[in-house]
Amino acid sequence: MSPVAIIGGGPAGAAAAITLARGGAVPLLLERDATTREKVCGEFLGTDAAEALATLGIDLPALGAVPVRRAIFAAGRREGRFDLPFPAWSLPRLVLDEALLAAAVAAGADLRRGVAVTTTAEEGGAWTLRLADGQLERAGTVVLATGKHDLRGFPRRAAHRSIGLKLPLAGVPIGDAIAVLACAGGYAGLQPRAGGGANLCLALPEGTPGLAAAARDPAALLALVAAGSAAGRDLLRGAEPFWARPLAVAAVPYGYRAPGDSGVFRIGDQAAVIPSLCGDGIAMALGSGLHAARAILAGQGAAWHQGAWDRHVRPGMRVAGLVDAAMGRVPGAVATLAGWLPGVARWAARQTRLGGAGA
Ligand SMILES: Cc1cc2nc3c(=O)[nH]c(=O)nc-3n(C[C@H](O)[C@H](O)[C@H](O)COP(=O)(O)OP(=O)(O)OC[C@H]3O[C@@H](n4cnc5c(N)ncnc54)[C@H](O)[C@@H]3O)c2cc1C
């Protein structure tokens, strides 16, 4: 097999590296951060993420993950509560990403940290990767796993772009629930955080009133979310931010699905971006990493991988898009429906599990 280079050591890149290494390859895994960093993410792991992680040798309880058993949807004075139809977990990305990279190294991958790829060029089926320090790497196969960050030459186009924010909090009585709280411009997610406290995370369309202030100031972010629902107000009343300002990421292209002809194996957020809290991006990252690696080991091309993965995620992405639109436009109706017809809410939650199963 020709040498495989994986650009990006998030969940997608690490899953691909572990699978390729187990299959006898020695993938080169290039990660631009020298040490694992916080990422804007709700850190919710559904049943498909847990299954994929088990396949990759990651034991969630052993890493300290906390169970999430219930869901709350709230908008204004309306509120719906239901039990999740599957086991779910919360685990900080710092812990998860580090465990996955360690597993990749243990499996035999060649991990290089603090190495950013700036450009790629292909000639006659051979790839040259230029690194930020000017060095070159060569590969026969390239896996694009840069997640939220686009590599030059591989733009992701989407009709709408959002700004994502994350802020861990103390003093939030969230218990074992994930709360989806309507607010100006959309909704926020709140869930328990392993090690104590809760994780507040949201992604709102660029230009949402109050979003710029919320990205700078924890108090403004808490006020924005608390204003959207009575449940949000109650949950955030005694909240104490752990950080001086929220972590932010710009230009999140929700709904993006990669074309089938880019010449590289696109995985994770570079393959498809599902609306947060309506579906699990991490599960999709892991599942697409497994899918691409198995395709490479079987001698399949990038276009085959992209087409098959896209067919796998398309129906669930549609359901997630509908839930996302409904939460944006008629959040009160969604909260009421979730309370009155929890079976429907559980059905929708199941439809948007798009990780490894069946891929
Ligand atoms: C607001 C918000 C909330 C979310 N909440 C959840 C949630 O609760 N549960 C869930 O499952 N998903 C959630 N997601 C989605 C989830 O965060 C992503 O889907 C997931 O991180 C994708 O994994 P990835 O490996 O594709 O990319 P990433 O996790 O972004 O990893 C990409 C890696 O590539 C590296 N990299 C980037 N560019 C280069 C380069 N040029 N050279 C080398 N390395 C590079 C980066 O440093 C990074 O480590 C959320 C997303 C947002 C925006």
Q: What is this structure's SSE topology?
A:
Blueprint lengths: L3 E4 L3 H12 L5 E4 L12 E2 L1 H9 L4 H4 L2 E10 L2 E13 L2 H15 L2 E4 L3 E7 L2 E6 L4 E4 L1 E4 L17 E9 L6 E7 L2 E7 L5 E8 L5 H6 L1 H9 L3 H7 L3 E2 L5 E6 L12 E2 L14 H17 L4 H28 L1 H10 L1 H10 L8
Parallel strand pairs: 1-2, 1-10, 2-6, 4-12, 10-17
Antiparallel strand pairs: 3-5, 4-5, 7-8, 8-9, 11-14, 11-15, 11-16, 12-13, 13-14
CATH homologous superfamily? FAD/NAD(P)-binding domain
| CATH hierarchy: architecture | 3-Layer(bba) Sandwich
Chain-averaged pLDDT: 93
Largest sheet: 9 strands, mixed
Q: What assembly state would you assign to the polypeptide chains in this entry?
A: single chain
Report the strand count: 17
Rg over alpha carbons: 20 Å
CATH domain class: Alpha Beta
Treating each run of at least 4 consecutive H or I residues as one helix, how many helices?
11
What does this structure look like?
There is one protein chain. With 359 residues, the chain is an alpha/beta fold. It has one domain (4-158, 252-351): FAD/NAD(P)-binding domain (3-Layer(bba) Sandwich), CATH 3.50.50. The chain is built from 11 helices and 17 strands. The chain has helices at 11-22, 47-55, 60-63, 93-107, 211-216, 218-226, 230-236, 281-297, 302-329, 331-340, 342-351; strands at residues 4-7, 28-31, 44-45, 66-75, 78-90, 110-113, 117-123, 126-131, 136-139, 141-144, 162-170, 177-183, 186-192, 198-205, 240-241, 247-252, 265-266. The strands form 3 sheets. Strands 3, 4, 5, 11, 12, 13, 14, 15 and 16 form a 9-stranded mixed beta sheet that branches. Strands 6-2-1-10-17 form a 5-stranded parallel beta sheet. Strands 7-8-9 form a 3-stranded antiparallel beta sheet, with no helix packed on it. Strand 1 (4-7), helix 1 and strand 2 (28-31) form a beta-alpha-beta unit. Helix 2 (47-55) packs parallel to helix 8 (281-297) and helix 9 packs across helix 10 (331-340). The protein is globular and about 60 Å long. The two termini are 23 Å apart. The mean pLDDT is 93. Flavin-adenine dinucleotide (FAD) binds at residues 7-13, 30-33, 39-44, 116-117, 145-149, 151, 164, 201-203, 249, 252, 268-269, 276, 280-283, 285.
